[in-house]
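A quick word before the example. In earlier lectures we treated sequence and structure as two separate objects. From today on, think of them as two lines of the same record. Here is PDZ domain-containing protein written that way.
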Amino acid sequence: LNASVAYVNTAHNVEFTKPEKGGLGFALVGGANGSTLRVKDICCGGVAEQDGRLRVGDILLEVSVNGIIVSGLSHGKVVDILRKAEGTVQLTVCRDILPMSTCSGSSSPAEASQEFNTSNSAGQQA
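And the structure line, produced from the sequence above:
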């Protein structure tokens, strides 16, 4: 018995203030060969965790530092944009939501294995 599950995509904006030292406190995966970028991990104690709106699995659509749309950009380009960002950073993310909450598990699509951690080079979490 095969059951197909329809997902509903919801897009929303998340705004963070990037600290002078450190990053936004999340890691990305994907972005190779035009694949989507997804939030892979949220660092404990970081800006993203303290805010609480960004979730693992969210798809990154746009980074509004200068209104740059990241869909289709390479992983490296998006990493560069986020690392150079200063002050307020607005992300537009899309989240897959099951129409019914009766499922006991979830699976995420296979993504490229590249990661981006917004922590600074000294390894400190934001």
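Notice the following. The chain has one domain: 8-97. We will return to this example when we discuss secondary structure assignment.
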